[in-house]
Amino acid sequence: MAVISVMPGKTVTEQELISLVEKNLPDHCRLRGGVRFIDELPKTITGKIKKKQLQNRFAN
Question: CB–CB of 21/30 below 8 Å?
Answer without folding.
Answer: yes
